């Protein structure tokens, strides 16, 4: 009995550590829940309920009517973006449910993930963010001075964010400081050369500062019905965006004191040269972002290519007369589908490629136009900001739809779907999924991995284990 209980604790500890790691790195609630259930199901445990909230993962297990319920709760740590660790958690999950490693090995590997050294040192991450700033400015048609200024400012923001974070300053104030620094940099560019389009510095920095938010995961949770987790993530994104707005508005007030014109000029027209600029901009945006979030080296090229493709596609679709919101939504859907297929091929998290692909379409210029207009025309400013919100929603909705369609097609092909395939689903429970599987045609084959037959037999004296065929179907109930 004691041995069985100890092993039961080990299984739940493994599942919760993996779930916490996924949640902390921005994975949506459906993905976290499904992964936890996959691990538990591969261990042969039934009657499990998993609950995922904004910063907490809980597992409840009822062995039988005469047994006491068993509950574990684990709080998620601070949200970070480290896609190397995210990939490590998903790889351990894949190896465990396929039977490649046993429970003890899986537990040891998961425990070692947080202690791993970062793939890229701090100076290279700073360089990646600096490249992002320069690439965003270049794609917006900036001149040499403005592009250099955006590059330097992005590097300053990276160092500032790292320094303030190390001192445990709340992220809200870090966003305020970032927005203010970006606006002041634009003022300096204007004072050096009034003919330069200095506003591009702010827009480029806005893209970088907004790229680190969890808006995509928040919208996916809201769209798929995981409202508790979505509400927390949306509120976090809203507050951090408000902090950014406050910082930029403070910088605009300083610009007005110096009578510096940092208004947004007309966008760059679509031409062959403009498309080439978008390709180069997208490549370096994707590459810089991938480095900044610790993407494994083998995925860097794919992130750069997806970002370049998304940047050009969104621009071309907009140029043919389609509304920007629809153009962005359709492009994001293509990015989501491509990311799901690529994740299966490369064996990397889908989120890695989705985030890289949507970065070039972040509505930084519309947010800045809205902030500029609010001081003189509240209705116009609110209109620009509302359009930015529409684009943000279209980005998330399109990316989620693309992943949903691609994941369903991958499952329809009959191939074995790995843990890297995205799970886009409404809230589900173990019992409901088991009824759905039992009602349909039984699937052939069994998942590998460690089993919990002994623990289930001891802890559930009143619940028969059922025939082998029944146990096989129940182990495959989770997505």
UniProtKB/TrEMBL annotation:
Keywords: Cell membrane, Membrane, Transmembrane, Transmembrane helix. Belongs to the ThrE exporter (TC 2.A.79) family. Residues 285-404 form the Threonine/Serine exporter ThrE domain. Its main location: membrane. The chain crosses the membrane at residues 119-138, 144-164, 171-192, 198-218, 238-258, 270-292, 299-320, 326-343, 350-368, 388-410. It comes from the Bacteria. It is a multi-pass membrane protein. The lineage of its organism: Bacteria, Bacillati, Actinomycetota, Actinomycetes, Micrococcales. InterPro entries: ThrE-like_N, ThrE_2, ThrE_Dicarb/AminoAcid_Exp. Residues 435-479 are annotated as: Disordered. It is found in: Cell membrane. This is Threonine/serine exporter family protein. Residues 13-252 form the Threonine/serine exporter-like N-terminal domain.
